[in-house]
Structure formats: C-alpha cells, structure tokens
Amino acid sequence: MIIVMKQGAGKEALAEVKKQIRELGYKPHVIHGDTRDVIGAVGDERGKAVLQSLESLPGVESVVPILKPYKLASREVKPEPSCFELAPGVVIGGDRVIVMAGPCSVESEAQIVETALAVKAAGASVLRGGAFKPRTSPYSFQGMEEDGLKLLARAREASGLPIVTEVVNPGDVDLVAQYADILQIGARNVQNFALLKTVGRIDKPILLKRGMATTIQEYLMSAEYILSEGNRRVILCERGIRTFETATRNTLDIAAVPVLKSLTHLPVTIDPSHATGHAHLVPSMCYAGVAAGADGLIVEVHPCPERAASDGPQSLRPAEFAAMMANLRAFVAAAGKQL
Ligand code: PEP
Ligand code: MN
C-alpha cells in the first residue's frame, strides 16, 4: 500500500505513520518527493487491507494499493526518476549519460591501468573490470579474485575513475564492497535471491543486469529484492536476451529501455558488448541505447582484444572506443542530455 502524506505534513506525523505501519507488521519505506512524502508499506499481501485504517491518522491524505507486484521499484510509489551518486560527482538518472568502460576481466596491472587512463581520456566516467567471473565453462578463466580487486583499486588511484565490478556469491559481498564503488550482479545471478538480499543490505550502488531469459516483470522483481532490503541505489542494465537469432551473441532488447523507464523510476543502462558479442556492432548499439533513453552504457574495452582472457571478440580497442565516444556526443545532445 502507498500512504500519501499531505503537503506540509510534519516529521512527527510521518514518524507516527511509520510506527503504526510497523505495528501492523509491515515495513515502511519513505520516499521524499518534491511536494509531499509517500510511504510504501510492504509486506504480506494477504493482510494488507488493515493498512487502510491509517487513513484516519493526522497528516495522511490517502492510502492506496500498489497495483504492480514490484512495489518499491514501481513508478506508482515514486513517479519521478531516481537520480543518485555512484561516486562523488558522478550522478546517474539525471541529465548525464554515464559511460562505464573497461575490460571484461582484470588481467594485469598494466592492462587495467592502461585501459583506465584510455577510457577516462575518451570521456568515460566509471571503470569496469571483472575480478570474479561467472563463466559458462569451469575450465575457462575464473578471474583474479582479490588480486584483481587490488589492481582495480590501483587503476582507480591512477585514473580517478570509480570502479564497477561483479560479485558472484553472497560470501564475497563484503570483500568486493571493500574495493568497489559499484557492485555488479551479472545476468546469470539475476535470480540468485540470497545474493540479491545480501547486496540489498550494503550501502553501495548495485548494477543489476537483466538475465538472458528474464521477463521485464521478473527482472523488476529481482530489483525489488534489493530495494526491499533497504538499498535504494539500483541501476538496471539490459544486456541482451536469448532468442532464435545466432548472428549476434544475444538480442539487444532495445525496447526494454523505454518499457523499463515507463514502469520504474530506477536508472536504465545498456550493455551493447554482451548484447551483440561483436566489437563492430557495439558503437551503433551505443547510439541506439542513448536514442532509446538510456541513462548510461557499459562497454567492454581492451588494449589488445586478441589476447584478452575473456570476451575479446566483443571488446573495443581504446582508439575504437574513443571514436565511438566522439560520435556519441551528437546522440547524447539529441536526447537532451550531456556526456
Ligand atoms: C560481464 O559484465 O562481463 C558479464 C559477465 O556480463 P553478463 O552477466 O551480462 O553476462
Ligand atoms: Mn564480459
């Protein structure tokens, strides 16, 4: 249920409503709006009618049901887009398109530092790099783990770019959070509910990839797992879904961008690298993503793709990335945003 407070209702009224929500066995999530506050009361769907009684409390304007199964992620609870800091000075969800770029996997200090400096010079504002890799084959490179996280921290020092890196299991969340500015949940873990709940309890933004076979509704329910634990900083990422098509690694569901933007207030990004699997297709999908209204892009870049430990064929060389970024400016301007 959504408890809509009256314009100008004071702090005491809000505190009293929160207290009563808890007493009825629900969790209050306050969303401070421009003109008024609303409180999402979430919990067991079956007894929610009891919340209707809160309508008589001072400062309450109305109590209305949230129709969507994802509550905190929905536009019903929060009509205006969520806009939040990924790191000091890097805000997603507003009028900037945030570009995250870097290699699929961290491989060496020279590789990650060189890539960080190159993507920064080209205009990226976040460095990506995997230290824990979820690979289809157990015989493929699994990532440098904590050594990789240390190298990412070195690259952050050298470049000033905040870092996004994947966490694949709940036991590693604290470790990864010690190093990362943003934690990524990969496509394969989109319904790893234990992992979603664990990252919901930390105070770092989460980049949640769409699974290769999750519907939009299932995807938003996954985001809801994180939000319902208290972490409000969730970034969505469309990275291609499985279809019958084999010319591309996955099929970029570009319509998912405006669909998600209409259903949720959370920022939406696209990953054209995993979506296509081929470096030459990446720039056009970056432009398409921005035209579709994406708040950001995450792009794989490697100084020497032919020698990459993972995902070389879809990785741009630094010069190709710089050329893409130069062309991107016109699309970003046409979308009424800035890089
Ligand atoms: C990645 O970002 O390198 C990755 C493994 O992505 P996804 O989970 O989208 O496959
Ligand atoms: Mn990859």
Quick overview of this protein structure:
The protein has 339 residues and is an alpha/beta fold. It has ten helices and 14 strands.
What topology does this entry show?
Layout lengths: L1 E4 L5 H13 L3 E6 L4 E6 L17 E5 L19 E4 L2 E3 L5 E5 L6 H14 L3 E3 L17 H14 L3 E4 L6 H7 L2 E4 L7 H7 L6 E4 L6 H13 L5 E5 L17 H8 L4 E3 L1 H5 L5 H10 L4 E5 L17 H17 L5
Parallel strand pairs: 7-8, 7-14, 8-9, 9-10, 10-11, 11-12, 12-13, 13-14
Antiparallel strand pairs: 1-3, 1-4, 2-3, 5-6
Helix pairs in contact: 2-3, 2-10, 5-6, 9-10
Structural notes for this entry:
- Strands 7-8-9-10-11-12-13-14 form an eight-stranded parallel barrel, surrounded by seven helices.
- It has two domains: 2-64, Alpha-Beta Plaits (2-Layer Sandwich), CATH 3.30.70.1140; 84-334, Aldolase class I (TIM Barrel).
- The mean pLDDT is 96.
- Helix content is 32%, strand content 18%.
- It has ten helices and 14 strands.
- Helix 9 (282-291) packs parallel to helix 10 (318-334).
- It has 339 residues and is α/β, with parallel strands linked by helices.
- The structure holds phosphoenolpyruvate (PEP) and manganese (II) ion.
- Residues 104, 274, 300, 310-311 line the site of manganese (II) ion (MN).
Fill in the CATH topology of the largest domain.
TIM Barrel
How is the largest sheet built, in terms of strand order?
7-8-9-10-11-12-13-14
Helix count equals 10
Tell me the name of the CATH homologous superfamily of the largest domain.
Aldolase class I
CATH structural architecture of the largest domain: Alpha-Beta Barrel
The general outline is: elongated
**End-to-end Cα distance:** 38 Å
- How many β-strand runs? 14
Counted up, domains total 2
Report the portion of residues in β strands.
Answer: 15-25%
Given this structure, which CATH class of the largest domain is correct?
Alpha Beta
Ligand types: phosphoenolpyruvate, manganese (II) ion
- Report the major sheet: 8 strands, parallel, barrel
Helix/strand order: EHEEEEEEHEHEHEHEHEHEHHEH
Uncertain spans = none
Radius of gyration: 21 Å
Subunit arrangement of the protein: single chain
Sheet/helix structural class: alpha/beta
Mean pLDDT: 96
Measured as a percent range, the helix fraction is 25-40%
